[in-house]
């Protein structure tokens, strides 16, 4: 009888939805959302019920988590600012904001060191320095775009850690596509400007080519690094949606500058350099 | 009798919580969350009930909105990517990511124009160029930190549009505090480095002073612009948590560079310049 009962039992009685006392808040929120429940029993490891989580607890958690993730991505540690904005004492506010800002600042200082390696090149071709903010900006924005898409896909369970290879292939192609678009615009802009102005010198075509090619490389590198970073952080046990991602980004900034100046040395040696 | 009834009626029978058919999703979510309701009736303008919003609808909206805001802050238009990451066709993915990236890129190109005004200064003092990425980075991060805090405070109802003046006073003081911290670190770093290296030349102390003072000004400016921008966008009817905020940020980048080079001209005229 027991043998006959078993499969029927499985079909007829769905396994009740429960959560464990050690479950993460987000896991609980997702379960309640998925099954459209109003409450779930919370079980201890031995299966005994220790309480209930209701749907309005979940709403509170979602609102809190959502705004906390925002803060983390902007280098503010959320735990520090429990009180409303206006009620946080100013010295505390400054101290808590300074924390990550100082850490990121120390990392970003390496860009000055990296630029130092190319001081001679800048001296010979000052025009190269003019595009440094643009290069810097493109690295940062293409990277944060890729990071955000991947972090979201991981959070929604659309991709798992094992998909890193497939994501990488997609992002290499996306990076190349985006790089070609921005590189072309950069090239055309310098070319067009040179028709009215001498700001880019007699070698303006070479300058336009250098900036255009460097933009392709930098968008590709920003996109690739931005998309793989969440996988790496997750693999090492960190939450990818934290300020630690910003810190690694500052290191990617340094390599972005190296790419730009290396392309410049390659294209301008013998003419401007 | 009617006169006596009225106040008693107000005390005893609380006004039922309802929402209007034209209410924003977020308004409905907040109301349900605030009163811990399981469902609210939806009223037409004439007061007739047209339906109900249940608590699990609200959870779905919150999860969706939370991830959408993330995308917007990273310059991806969320409506475009309804499908999961892996299922979005690559050409569509590139086109949707290129949209805002190109707009921001066009704005950021103004930095090359701004740098062009100081080509002569950079030629005379190449050392100035070395700190451009750092200056750029500090402007961006202090700005996004302030923006995020203010957007969150506005979203949670901790401050209203009319508080802009009080927020500005707080952010000027925060910006000065943060600027002093980063400016001091920048000054000390250049000073310390000059003990071992000649990279900053014989006028290293003046260079350290220039970068230090410029950092104070730029953090203050970034913080001020970053905190006031959400008020301005909200006042003009835009959602501050969108890519349009990023676009204005690129314009603030240009002014950041102008501050840096203006401080440099002020401090280095007669020596390096």
Which term fits the overall shape of chain A?
Answer: elongated
Largest sheet of chain A: 3 strands, mixed
Structural class of chain A: mainly alpha
Give the helix proportion of chain A (percent range). Answer: 55-70%
Integer tally of domains of chain A: 2
Low-confidence stretches of chain A: 8-12
Number of E-state strands of chain A: 3
**Order of SSEs of chain A:** HEHEEHHHHHHHHH
User: Which CATH class of the largest domain in chain A?
Assistant: Mainly Alpha
CATH topology of the largest domain in chain A: Tetracycline Repressor, domain 2
By CATH, the superfamily of the largest domain in chain A comes out as: SLC41 divalent cation transporters, integral membrane domain
Give the oligomeric state.
homodimer
**N-to-C span of chain A:** 89 Å
Q: Record the strand order, biggest sheet of chain A.
A: 1-2-3
Architecture of the largest domain in chain A, according to CATH?
Answer: Orthogonal Bundle
Tell me the fraction of residues in β-strands of chain A, as a range. Answer: under 5%
Q: Biggest interface and which pair forms it? A: A-B, 92 and 92 residues
What is the overall number of helices of chain A?
Answer: 11
